[in-house]
């Protein structure tokens, strides 16, 4: 027993020889005070935020929640530590949220998920949860810092707008269907026009399909697995126009994959350009043509719309219509792109530059 204590005694004698005991104790007290001060600063900052703030150990055990969390949930302090936070999750969201959390713990990827939390009133409210890992100098995760933000009202407003959008789209498609039926009924009394009537019905049906691309979509209204190419999308939007069948619309260049992220702003732009070309530009003249060319330049996609052999262009119009403004905002805000218009005497030329990475959703 005496020998087993020697290493400890030797250590203390060596330590005392290097650092006086009083100095060592003072340094320990200073370090402890600094740690307490750091914790106090973090707690004060976390409580000042309007979000619910929490932290977790590298294994996922939650060890801290700020005041906003307890105000929102109404639970007793400490009852949601470790795995206890699962109890305030909606049963229908629990498995999905836990799977996403465990995936992030394994990979170190940032955590982001929407789920319903039980409010102190007893109702469940939608919240957006985010978390980022804190790493040491060796790159090891030492803690997770996360937030929960109440998005219930925003979620409800988005759902109401989606219902309104669907209802409006449904009514517009019904109008297309009624027009098609009227054409069919009229053609029954004039057999010589049946072929022409069938072509008109096909164009109306194509216009209805184009409408589905043009209208804004939410996460709920998007078709799962929608994946197409840029040329196919443009062809779909332009299919109702007679100039397409007449060979006066040419689509060429490098084709690239697109999905639902970019389909709406691109379709909105092409639809607006084609509409204006029919009203005022090259597609309104028998000999007028439109050339659409796509080209990859580095990390960007360059898309060019060129009208030729249409009516003479006097110059830039004094004002832009709502559709034109909306389509330009969609390219800039939704896709991070740039759009330029040049009004040449021979016709309108539009150049669109969009980062290729923004044409599709990035898979994690």
UniProtKB/TrEMBL annotation:
Pfam family, one: PAS_3
PAC domain location: 111-163
EC number(s) stated in the UniProt entry for this protein: 2.7.13.3
UniProt KW keywords: ATP-binding, Chromophore, Flavoprotein, FMN, Kinase, Nucleotide-binding, Phosphoprotein, Photoreceptor protein, Receptor, Repeat, Sensory transduction, Transferase, Virulence
Record's protein name: histidine kinase
Molecular functions (GO terms): ATP binding; photoreceptor activity; protein histidine kinase activity
Catalytic activity, as annotated: ATP + protein L-histidine = ADP + protein N-phospho-L-histidine
Broad EC category: transferase
